[in-house]
Predict the 3D structure of the following.
Amino acid sequence: MTDRQRIVITGIGLTAPNGNNLTEFRRNLVNGKSGVRKHNVRYLGDIIAGVCSHDPLKYQKKKELRRGTRAGSTSIYCCHEAVADAKLDLNSVDKSRIGIFVGITEHGNVDTEKQIYEISQFNYDTKFVSHHYNPRIVANNPAGEVTLNMGITGPHYTLGAACAGGNLGLIQGCQMLLLNQVDIALGGGVSETIHAFGAFASFRSEGALASHEDPEKACRPFDKDRNGVVVSEGGCIFVLERLEAALARSARMYGEVVGYAINSDALDFILPDSEGQAKCMTLALKNAGLSPDDISVISTHATGTPQGDPQECKAIRQVFGECRHTYINNTKCMIGHSMGAAAALELAGNLPSFEDHVVHPTINIDNLDPDCAFENLVINRSKKIDKVDYILKNAFGMLGINSTVIVKRFEG
């Protein structure tokens, strides 16, 4: 494989409920610090959620914020942060050769709910519908707002992939680089879901919305007493480049993307399937030319639902056995489920392991579910290991979409 065919991560921009840059985010993950808290939701009152605290005015004016969306603003913040982290000077590159690929769970719900609420104050008179409504709810909005803000004229689109969206944004960026359609890809995922009451109400109707007297303990994947999802917002964008270009400008390498896979269960609207998940991991390993024993860390998708977590654990056992050579962790326990942003954020939070050899913990496990027990599940405290060569990131979503990404410690 030539340097032109190898894809590396050279920048990371993010906002999560417990950190607004990789350094802060990673520090809090390693220390087991949660960012989950109470959040007031229209019609529902105080709900447990993951809420971000980044400053949207860092890269936008108030007028732009009023015109655009929360997802668009989050995308803009993350893309600017990623480009700065990669030390890229956008004025010195061809902006028509930059692509924006943003994974999402859904888009338009927030502004539709808000618009209906606002016209309800005027007896549903439609003359009060905002003229900004259409550009706010089109599916390409989060990526499109980035192009307007940053003057990027290359391809942009979002990828609706439920909770696998963050992986798919990265995968699409890699594929567009390999196809020579772009020279720089900004790929990842974002979510504004906590600003839509319907998402919380639907999870509650399913019996899948987490509850706990202490918000920070509400998200508890693999614990026997887990009782549902903590809905969160967030965003994470990676700068992806061909290795030859990254070497030419002496860029920092967070890791090399060496394998990925996407498949479908074709089984159920909501319920996951361990067989489909296992096939996805197996295909990603095959595409990377790796065996299960090569993987150092599995960053799990597990959301804290009674039915979902054991399915992923069953799939992992099918592929990896009891994981005696591989460590397992989960990030949602500290940030909740950031939907379209989840996979990208959770991968980003684990990438520093290549350098410090520390696997961040899965917190809130007080009573480990035997169906989710692994010898190398990192519980409640971080674990220092000898080395980290490969990280595997799982992300699965509604309607049976599965995705796996494998990143390698960079070696020249």
